[in-house]
Amino acid sequence: MYICVMIMKPNTPVPEGFIHRDVPTSTVAIGWIQGLEKDIYLVSHELTQKEMGKRGYKFDEKGSRCMELYNCPRFTIPMDNGEIILDYYLPCELVKKEI
Fold first, then answer.
1. Distance between CA 85 and CA 49 in Å, rounded?
2. In the prediction, which pLDDT does 19 show?
3. Cβ neighbours of residue 75 under 8 Å, at least 6 residues apart?
4. What is the pLDDT of residues 13-67, one digit of tens each?
5. Pairing state between β 28-35 and 57-59
6. At residue 98, does pLDDT exceed 60?
7. Up-side HSE of residue 10: CA atoms within 13 Å toward CB?
8. This protein's superkingdom (predicted)?
9. pLDDT at 99 > cutoff 80
10. Helix H or strand E segment including 28
């Protein structure tokens, strides 16, 4: 399922005709995926998850939802080469490493 959201402060009034979902507190990784818009969506989850693993974290399937964030201006104004940057939020948890 794909839902378009706006992240708001708790207890913000919900306008008529809209719904809300509370997002539980969780640890998230934020990946910045740079590339052409036609290419970045299919790889954002995989690339963020791969980088999390390098840093000792793993995807938390019980956590909050994965989210794409279209941050201005790095997403809305392409670079000279046509690339943009997509912020990708992925719930994660620290992997216990044995020493």
1. 17
2. 87
3. 69, 84, 85, 86, 87
4. 999 998 888 877 888 999 999 999 999 999 999 999 999 999 999 999 887 788 9
5. unpaired
6. no
7. 4
8. Bacteria
9. no
10. strand 28-35
Task: Check: CB of residue 67 under 8 Å from CB of residue 5.
Answer: yes
Q: Which residues contact 77 (CB under 8 A, 6 or more apart)?
A: 84
Residue 90's pLDDT is 93
DSSP code string of 29-96: EEEEEEE-HHHHHHHHHHHHHHHHHHTTEEE-TTSS--EEE--TTTTTS--TTS-EEEEEEEEEEEPP
> What is the distance between the alpha carbons of residues 6 and 9, in angstroms, rounded to a whole number?
10
Local structure of residue 11 (DSSP, 8 states): T
* Cβ pair 44, 33 in contact under 8 A: yes
- Regarding pTM above 0.90, the answer is no
* Residue 49 tokens, joined: 């998850």
Separation of CA 48 from chain center: 9
